Amino acid sequence: MYKTDKFPFLTIKPKILYFGTPVALITTIDKERKANIGPISSVWALGYNLLLGLGCDSKTYQNIIENKECVVNLPSADLYENIEKISNLTGLNPVPESKRHQYRYEADKFSAGNFSPMDAEMVTPPALANCPMQLECILQNYYIIEYGVDGIPLIAAVQVKVINVRAHENLVINQDHINPSAWSPLIYNFRHYYTLGKEMGKNFRAEI
Questions:
Q1: Biggest CA-to-CA distance, the chain
Q2: Where are the beta strands (DSSP E) in 30-167?
Q3: Model pTM score
Q4: Residue 132 and residue 175: Cα distance in Å, rounded?
Q5: How many CA atoms lie within 13 A of 168 on its CB side?
Q6: By the 8 A CB rule, do 174 and 208 touch?
Q7: Which residues pair with 73 in a beta bridge?
Q8: Which is the most buried residue in 70, 139, 164, 201, by most CB within 10 A?
Q9: 1 pLDDT exceeds 60?
């Protein structure tokens, strides 16, 4: 055990590594053009490329692979209760064996979570009017990163390209910049919901 001036370090093996990432709501459609919402917390951006971490037994993953489009809706912190209402729901029927002990089928997650669909501009899946930022995306690639003992794909890293960004007017300054003082994302911190605290400073590349 290594000791510092404040606390000793412990070697641990946590069940999860959700160390504080933004929540996103992925809207997709299936081959019958039925829309679905999938809440995730494994998403990061590099330029206009997003990497989404998705379970292969999810309706969201199947819809993206099949139809190659989605909207990544970024909720504000006040939507956490809406999100939690759909967190144990799946659009897959029958419910996959791996999910039956925790999830149940729901055909209409929009009503279940009180989310309002609105037309996207450049992709077919709807966006969520409740969410102040919407990233319209097309599929670029995907990679299976974890398999089960029986060889069944479990988790995939899905690469999408953002082709259109929409944001609430009150978040936008200087035409194409998001005002970080006005934007309050919902953060998933070891399966608890948080919002941002006070600003500590800014990076040398910040333009506003």
A1: 60
A2: 35-40, 43-46, 49-55, 69-74, 89-90, 104-105, 117-118, 127-128, 133-147, 153-167
A3: 0.94
A4: 16
A5: 17
A6: yes
A7: 25, 134
A8: 70
A9: no
